[in-house]
Design brief:
This protein is 24% helix and 22% strand. By secondary structure, it is of the alpha+beta class.
Length: 359
């Protein structure tokens, strides 16, 4: 398995499994002199931690990160930054009764086909547990972006068929990051509770907005910023779609409607249908995109399936199984982290664009 790294100059490599001793990330390419503490990372990790509300998995992981290298006297040294997070609340016994069953919506079938083995304990490497490493790395990337005044905001835009107004300021309700007003947030929570009571799950859409993005980030052709954002977002477990700007709605618009007209009134363009990029390079307008998450695959309803010998079986999750009724909720800080990682890498890559950037 050789695909565990992401980024060019600001590069991360994550490791570990859901029920292993620990998970972690190595960050290579972070410039020296950046102020960084374990508290910076743990604050970010607390936003994705399970067990805080009835809308997420009851697994109790405090997600306390420890920095093992790359930081001295509160600042990065330029050496690789090693971050380790110990796994604490692991109970593999619940997976024993179903370890020979193909779990619908899960990766055990494809992993078996590719590698000839699969760690059934919580999904092993395919588990959403791995995203804690991304959030830890994203906290470092966020500190780097802050040096340039770049701010990444992500929030839960919609669940089920509820449409939200993208201009409403995000709010924090019961530990969940929602975009809309209280009434809409309450609708979301009621929808989650209804699906949970029925032994089912829901999908959702997470939107991100990046403010104070300088023009010129991203490279043409194969390193377009939106292409790297798409790659980053679709690498998150349970993702099924990505769009930037008007996204798929742009296919239903005319050029006269979609074109962002240039202006000199303090903003590059009069509108932002493109979502902040042209030709794969940032325009200086806010970056706006959305990520679609499928419904959680693990549900309490019985499901027809096969065992690993091809025999028909019925999958019923063991009593006490712990899963998110809507994975999009805890995906919010993961989307923010992946966005930060892409932008931090692009920021460093941009230093190589012209001689002027080197002066």
């Amino acid at each position: 398995m050789s695909s565990n790294s992401f980024g060019n100059l600001f590069r991360i490599t994550t490791w570990g499994e859901s029920h292993g001793k620990a998970i972690g990330v190595i960050i290579d390419g972070c410039p020296a002199g950046l102020e960084l503490s374990e508290n910076d990372i743990n604050t970010a990790l607390a936003q994705r931690a399970p067990g805080k509300t009835p809308y997420t998995s009851p697994r109790k992981e405090k997600d306390i990160a420890e920095i093992y290298s790359g930081v001295f006297e509160g600042k990065t040294t330029g050496a690789p930054i090693a971050i380790i997070i110990m796994n604490q609340d692991t109970d593999s016994s619940r997976y024993e009764p179903i370890k020979h069953l193909l779990r619908p919506g899960h990766a055990n079938y494809t992993y078996q086909k590719k590698y000839g083995c699969f760690d059934h304990r919580g999904g092993g490497r395919a588990s959403g547990r791995e995203t804690a490493c991304r959030v830890a790395a994203g906290a470092v990337a966020g500190k780097l972006l802050a040096c340039k005044g770049i701010q990444v905001v992500a929030y839960l835009k919609s669940i089920d068929t509820i449409e939200m107004d993208p201009v409403v300021k995000p709010r924090d309700d019961a530990g969940l990051v929602f975009c809309p007003d209280k009434d809409a947030a309450d609708k979301m929570m009621r929808a989650i509770n209804k699906a949970k009571a029925e032994g089912d799950s829901l999908g959702g859409v997470v939107e991100f907005i990046v403010h104070n993005v300088p023009a010129g980030l991203g490279d043409p052709v194969y390193e377009k910023l939106e292409a790297n954002l798409a790659r980053a977002m679709l690498s998150i477990p349970a993702t099924k779609g990505f769009e930037i700007g008007e996204g798929f709605h742009a296919a239903r618009m005319r050029g006269s409607q979609h074109n962002d007209l240039f202006t000199n009134d303090g903003h590059p363009t009069t509108s932002n249908h493109a979502g902040g990029t042209l030709g794969g390079i940032t325009t200086g307008m806010p970056l706006i995109g959305r990520v679609a998450f499928k419904p959680t695959s693990s549900i309490k309803k019985p499901q027809a399936t096969l065992d690993d010998q091809g025999n028909p079986q019925t999958l019923v999750l063991p009593e006490g199984s712990r899963h998110d009724p809507c994975v999009a909720i805890r995906a919010v800080p993961v989307v923010s982290a992946m966005c930060s990682l892409v932008l931090a890498d692009a920021l460093l890559m941009n230093q190589c664009a012209t001689v002027e950037h080197l002066r």
